[in-house]
Amino acid sequence: MFLVGLTGGIATGKSTVSKMFADLGIPVIDADKLSRQVVRPGTLGAKKICKQFGLEVFHPNGQLNRDLLGQIVFSDAHKRKILNSIVHPEVYKATVWAIVKYFFQGHQFIILDFPLLFETGNTVPYLSEIVVVSCDKETQLKRLMARDGLTESQAKLRIQAQMPLEEKCKKATHIIDNTGSIQKTSSRTKALFLEFRASNKHLKVRIFVLFVISLWIGLATWMVAVVVRRK
C-alpha cells in the first residue's frame, strides 16, 4: 500500500475531490474529521485546550466552540501555534492506527486528506504522491466568504494563515484545478485514480514491510535460541 497526500488551500475544493476518491472506493483518512474526534468531551485534547484557552471556548454541553476558537487563533499566530501543538500529535496518532488498519485490509493505496500537509510537514516524507487542489484567488475568496459566512477581511485572514497556494502547487506531484466546472474536476480526479491504480508502488512497500517483519522474527528466534543454549 502506498500513501497519497491530498491538500489545497482553504475553500479550493479539497473536500469535494476527497469525496470523489471515496466514491471511487478509495479509503480516505480525513484530518479534519480526526481533529474533531480528538477534541470531543473528555478527551486529552479537549482537556489541554481547556487549560490553554479556558472554558469560554466550549459550549455548555462540553462540545468545543469551533467558531469562537477559530476567531481567536486565526487572529493570533502564537495562539494558533499552541492549538496546533495540542491537536496535531493526537491526529497523527489516530492517522497511524488508520494506516495500519488499511494496510492489513490489503488496499493498494489510500488518501491522506490533510489541509495543513505542507505547513506541518510530518507526513510528507512518507507520501508517494501529493495532489494539490487549486483554484484562482478570487474564486477561493468568494467561496470561503459564502461557505463560512465571513466578511472579506475575515476570509483573507484565514487564507493568509496558510501557506500560499502557489507554493503548495510547486511541491505537488499532481494538481487538480477546481476553478471550473465540477465535471472537469471529476474528470481529472478519475484520471488520477486510474493512474494510481496502474502503479506498482504498493508492491515495493509490501515487500519492504515483509522484509522488516522477517528480520524481526529472525532476530527474535535467534535471541530465544541463545537463551535456550545458556540454560
Describe this structure in words.
With 231 residues, this protein is an alpha/beta fold. The chain has a single domain, classed as Rossmann fold. Helix content is 61%, strand content 11%. It contains 11 helices and 5 strands. A 5-stranded parallel β-sheet has the order 2-3-1-4-5, sandwiched between helices. Helix 3 runs antiparallel to helix 5 and helix 7 crosses helix 8. Pfam families: CoaE.
What is the CA-atom radius of gyration, in angstroms? 21 Å
- CATH domain fold name: Rossmann fold
Oligomer: single chain
Arrangement of strands in the largest sheet: 2-3-1-4-5
What structural class do you assign from the helix and strand content?
A: alpha/beta
Indicate the CATH class.
Alpha Beta
Number of strands: 5
DSSP summary: helix tally:
11
List segments where confidence is low: pLDDT < 50 over at least 5 consecutive residues: none
Secondary structure layout plus pairing:
Blueprint: E1 2-8, H1 14-23, E2 28-30, H2 31-37, H3 44-53, H4 66-73, H5 77-104, E3 109-113, H6 117-120, E4 129-134, H7 137-148, H8 152-160, H9 165-171, E5 174-177, H10 182-197, H11 201-230
Parallel strand pairs: 1-3, 1-4, 2-3, 4-5
Compact overview of the structure:
Helices cover 61% and strands 11% of the residues. The protein is of the alpha/beta class and 231 residues long. This is Dephospho-CoA kinase domain-containing protein.
Tags for this model:
231 residues, alpha/beta, Rossmann fold
